[in-house]
Amino acid sequence: MTTTTATRDAARVTDAVKVYGSGDTAVRALDGVSVGFPAGRFTAIMGPSGSGKSTLMHCAAGLDTLTSGTARIGGTELGSLDDRRLTLLRRDRIGFVFQAFNLVPTLTVAENITLPMDLAGIKGSRDWIDALVDVVGLRDRLHHRPAELSGGQQQRVAVARAFAGQPEVVFADEPTGNLDSRSGEEVLNLLGRAVRQMDRTVVMVTHDPVAAAHADEVVFLADGRLVDRMESPTADRVLDRMKAFDAKGAPS
Ligand SMILES: Nc1ncnc2c1ncn2[C@@H]1O[C@H](COP(=O)(O)OP(=O)(O)OP(=O)(O)O)[C@@H](O)[C@H]1O
User: Known PANTHER family for this protein (predicted)?
Assistant: First the structure.
């Protein structure tokens, strides 16, 4: 490697343990995960079903708390924040895209995009939002309501909303899960463009190798542990890596 400056992590978990429940029914969803998500990069989290992907994302993003270990957004340790400050941090410094688009049906596209900022009384940058509207290709739909849009278009609104406040990191949980492959491809291209052309940071949970191939790097989880990382992934290489998990997990 020829890197001379250390990359800054937009988000990071260290020695992350998450146990759901207690006693006989306790599930160790994260079992000592340390992973950083570098600023200005698109990172995908992959792994078999139940490997802890969503738990890792939720804990890294302050939607859930770790049993032990630390989660940081930039230099802020989430465990040190009370509920109010955590809510503000999520609002001001993080964007979210979920499988369900979660748009407000009575509001227009334009209003949906700026809703979190409007609620927070944040003005935001008009130029930024204007550029975003072009990147997501929604200029001619700004005054439509979500019901008048296709699923792919609705998710593009959700992507624009996630980036509207110029957050430090956008977390996306299976953002293409409800979309056909063509619309999914558009949304993934969009996330990639936000990172590469607009210097944003994206962390995406997916179980789709084709989706993961849009990332700069894939981190692989298995049984709540970080087991591998892959730079410049291709769908075939990710698929092969996932098959190796299956083979290992299969009864002999
Ligand atoms: N709220 C909860 N209560 C109890 N167990 C949970 C809870 N959420 C997740 N788990 C368990 O923790 C483990 C990890 O779940 P998680 O949803 O993080 O995995 P995942 O890799 O995202 O799975 P999938 O790809 O199926 O969505 C699983 O065994 C799951 O059943």
Answer: ABC TRANSPORTER RELATED (PTHR24220:SF685), IMPORT ATP-BINDING PROTEIN (PTHR24220)
